[in-house]
Amino acid sequence: MSEEITTQSPVRLAVIIGSVRHERFADAISGWLLSELAAIDGLEVDPIDLADVDLPLQGTRPGGTRTAISDKLHAADAYLVVTPEYNHSFPAALKNAIDWHFKEWAYKPVGFVGYGAGSGGIRAIEQLRLIFPELRATTIRDAVLLNAPWTRLGPNGYEGTEGERGALAATMTELTWWARTLRAGRVAEQVSAA
């Protein structure tokens, strides 16, 4: 590795914003989320907004082609996926971004922030939990579910509830534990393979 990674090194967290709609609530959610994450010690947060990434639907070659976000995904110790629930599932752009990459996801943990009407995005998250293990990624149990979040949009943006902040704290505690544990395993494996 080009830099020494220790147990005290910050966790590099890629926050993947999965909605690419022109008029989307993801901007309000991600604004709140990034503000909350900035207050957590020991994190280096790198937002990846899929609306800003050109990943064609044709020509996916996992592991064979570098994309505009390959380096960011590779550098991450953990992922926090922000997904709406569209038609009881997650956006096609998010699946496309997952499919464009392969090695980047391996042996890293994935957490979720979901939002939607009624379900808080749980159906989208449950489907994503089926996909990531195929890429050797570990999905964590805790998640943040934002039920009809547009009802809590104030003059300063999205206003999370105490329960949502608690869910985020629990999610980040679990996600950073897995991130450090799996990073130690990846580092040890590189040393033994050298």
TrEMBL record:
Gene3D superfamilies: 3.40.50.360. InterPro entries: Flavoprotein-like_sf, FMN_Rdtase-like_dom, NAD(P)H-dep_reductase. Residues 12-147 form the NADPH-dependent FMN reductase-like domain. Signal peptide: none annotated. PANTHER family: CHROMATE REDUCTASE, NAD(P)H-DEPENDENT FMN REDUCTASE LOT6. This is NAD(P)H-dependent FMN reductase. It comes from Amycolatopsis roodepoortensis.
